[in-house]
Design a protein that fits this description.
The structure holds two protein chains of two kinds.
Chain A lengths: L3 H14 L4 E9 L2 E8 L6 H8 L14 H10 L4 E7 L9 E9 L11 H11 L4 E8 L2 E6 H8 L7 H17 L2
Helix pairs in contact in A: 1-3, 1-4, 4-6
Chain B lengths: L3 H12 L11 E6 L2 H6 L1 H14 L6 E6 L11 E5 L5 E3 L4 H13 L9 H5 L1
Parallel strand pairs in B: 1-2
Antiparallel strand pairs in B: 1-3, 3-4
Helix pairs in contact in B: 3-4
Classes of the chains: A alpha+beta, B alpha+beta.
Bound molecules: adenosine-5'-triphosphate, FE2/S2 (inorganic) cluster and magnesium ion (MG).
Adenosine-5'-triphosphate (ATP) sits at the interface of chains A and B.
């Protein structure tokens, strides 16, 4: 992927596919390190699946073929000297409290660090595609933070859906201004 | 600074529009957003459709949505167009520029741009 924001879009799509109702995307930049957290309350995965997802070449006879999304994020993190972890509780194991947290760590000064890129586009694309999910976005740097919570927007918007074009445009403008203020 | 008051204004404006939106979605534009699609540039293509459809005044008639794997990695970014009583049209190797053209000629003008379709690549 050309930008990390594209990995974020792709991995957050897994949370959408897992039928999550709440998804948190958090980026924290501090001391030359970027920590990316994508947390959802979707259907989760079994331990076996987590293992397979982390390593696309892991094969047993029962293994189904897995996709490339998580391995690509893993590669992007590992090539900077960082890595990823996945913590997941499957709906089957705990019908009350389930979901997945993907955490990736990057060393931003490493030569192979992929720039974060256009996070605003990623967030608006996710909201446009899944306006019924509650999204929370936080990007914290040493200069300040950019934040958005769809719950707060919904309170004001009432019945107007989040994928309404003017709403999407507003979100885009709001986030871009936020980024300008911490440049 | 963008204010929440602007959002409230959007809500006010939409109040009168709710009835008008009925019958929307005569045409469905679906953008493939699986890993391979995203890597190939589906995000700007999706956004070009979202923006272009609205700017062309087609929002009542056309819905733009996202899907996962369409199954033709080598042709990503892929966009499918569904319309009642018509055959599905699959546009391949899309770009924001091609999206603008599809909006103008196909969605607005009703003419398929066969040059950009998958049938053109296969035959
Ligand atoms: N947040 C999540 N919640 C539940 N399952 C997940 C989550 N993330 C990944 N998975 C599981 O791991 C698999 C592989 O994810 P990955 O992103 O690597 O591949 P993919 O390209 O999305 O493929 P697929 O189209 O099968 O999802 C998914 O198919 C899903 O079963
Ligand atoms: S994985 Fe590429 S089109 Fe499905
Ligand atoms: Mg994926």
């Amino acid at each position: 992927m050309k930008e990390l924001s594209l990995n974020v879009l792709d991995v957050a799509m897994n949370s959408v596919k897992a039928r999550a109702e709440n998804i948190l995307i958090k980026l924290i930049e501090a001391d030359g390190r970027l920590t990316l957290i994508i947390e959802d309350d979707g259907c989760g995965m079994s331990e076996e699946t987590v293992k397979n997802v982390m390593n696309p070449f892991y094969t047993t006879r029962t293994t189904r073929s897995v996709g490339m999304g998580v391995p690509l994020l893993k590669l992007a993190a590992e090539q900077t000297g960082g890595g990823i972890t996945i913590a997941s509780v499957s709906e089957k194991d705990n019908p009350e409290k389930h979901g997945t947290t993907v955490t990736a760590e990057f060393y931003m000064n490493h030569f192979d660090f992929t720039p974060v890129g256009d996070m605003v586009s990623t967030v608006t694309t996710l909201i446009q595609g899944s306006p019924h999910i509650e999204w929370r976005f936080e990007h914290i740097t040493d200069k300040g933070s950019v934040e958005l919570d769809t719950r707060e927007l919904r309170e004001i918007l009432g019945d107007v859906p989040l994928d309404n074009y003017e709403v999407i445009k507003w979100i885009e403008g709001y986030l871009r201004e936020g980024y300008e203020s911490i440049e | 600074m963008k204010s929440l008051a602007e959002l409230a204004a959007i809500r006010e404006k939409m109040k009168d529009k709710v009835v008008l939106r009925e019958g929307s979605g005569e045409i469905r534009v679906v953008v493939g957003m699986a890993t391979c699609g995203i890597a190939a540039g589906a995000r700007p293509v999706l956004n070009a459709f979202v923006e272009g459809v609205s700017n062309a005044g087609l929002a009542e008639k056309v819905t733009v949505s996202q899907t996962g794997c369409i199954g033709v990695c080598q042709y990503e970014p892929v966009v499918e167009i569904f319309e009642a009583d018509k055959e599905k049209v699959t546009y391949i190797k899309m770009t924001p520029e091609k999206a603008a053209e599809v909006i103008e000629k196909h969605l607005k003008g009703g003419k398929v741009i066969s040059e950009y379709t998958i049938s053109n690549a296969i035959s």
